[in-house]
Amino acid sequence: MMFEDLLFDTAARVQALLSTLLEPTVGQDEIARPEQLLAAMRHAVLNGGKRLRPFLVVESARLFGGDDSAAFRVGVALECLHCYSLVHDDLPAMDDDDVRRGQPTVHIAFDEATAILAGDSLLTFAFDMIAAPETALTDSAKTALVLALARASGVGGMAGGQALDLAAEKQAPDEQGIVTLQAMKTGALLRFACEAGPMMTAAPAEDRLRLRTFGALIGRAFQLADDLLDLTADAQTMGKATGKDAGRGKGTLVALKGQAWAEAELDRLVDEAVTLLAPYGARAETLIQAARFVANRKS
């Protein structure tokens, strides 16, 4: 398969699994699934997207011979958590956006209270997915995944990064501050996605560290490419508002160091990521293509 076809195929499988898991049927130990809340959750997750994070989970697991079914469930868990963060980020008290992936954001399509509850439900559902008996992993693997995902998404990761991002509207951070903010807000979940494979397969600590570092590089490249797109792309192409960071006076590395520097830095990050995976030979080719895709994406 060509890389884009593989990405599309994974996204389709993620979409199908999400749709099945978020059906009205009440799960074991659940009491009921309120209709409007479930509809808002489905609106938040069944709206397309490249599904890059679950793709990285699945491919990092395949690199170490992991079970595909379990990897897709962990990938879907991560996507639910990522989508929760988007629902909350779009709220008026946060980034105040009306459009996400080309459609009305959850609080516009429903209301603010429902959007908050939909985000809360997707967050907790992520950990439900990993811990559930249907996810065919050892208890030790599940524990490691839950701990790593909690730390990637909480005060020391994504949520903390969002807090720093809000603070940046009042006082622009310096270069190191921007790097830290972006490593938390964007990079932490991408780092987890790449590290998940060796965690699922009980790979040696050296492999987990290597994939964790690869994920951190992917995260930096993703945010840098995003900042370039925010500067150069239009809202229709992106499926969301663009130019908002500049409008709010938020500092980015692109604004601080220029477009030419950012493009050169993207090349450097990809080269470092490719070198890092060299010990795995041809088995790592899909992940290497993913690094290039992240750096060169147009939306």
Written account of the structure:
The protein has 299 residues and is mainly α. Strand 1 and strand 2 form a beta hairpin. 70% of the residues lie in helices and 1% in strands. It has a two-stranded antiparallel sheet with strand order 1-2. Helix 1 crosses helix 3 (52-63), helix 3 crosses helix 9 (175-200) and helix 9 packs across helix 10.
Beta content comes to: under 5%
Q: From the alpha carbons, calculate the radius of gyration and give it in angstroms.
A: 18 Å
What best-fitting shape do the alpha-carbon axes yield? globular
Largest sheet: 2 strands, antiparallel
Tally of contiguous helical segments: 15
Structural class: mainly alpha
How many β-strand runs?
Answer: 2
Order of helices and strands: HHHHEEHHHHHHHHHHH
Low-pLDDT stretches: none
Strand order of the largest sheet: 1-2
Instruction: Give the helix proportion (percent range).
Output: over 70%
What tags apply to this protein structure?
single chain, 299 residues, mainly alpha, 70% helix, globular
Short précis:
The chain is mostly helical and 299 residues long. It has 15 helices and 2 strands. It is 70% helix and 1% strand.
List the helices and strands and how they pair.
Blueprint: H1 3-21, H2 35-45, H3 52-63, H4 68-89, E1 99-100, E2 103-104, H5 106-109, H6 112-131, H7 139-153, H8 158-167, H9 175-200, H10 205-232, H11 235-238, H12 244-247, H13 253-257, H14 259-276, H15 285-296
Helix pairs in contact: 1-3, 1-4, 2-6, 3-4, 3-9, 4-6, 4-9, 7-9, 8-9, 9-10, 10-14, 10-15, 14-15
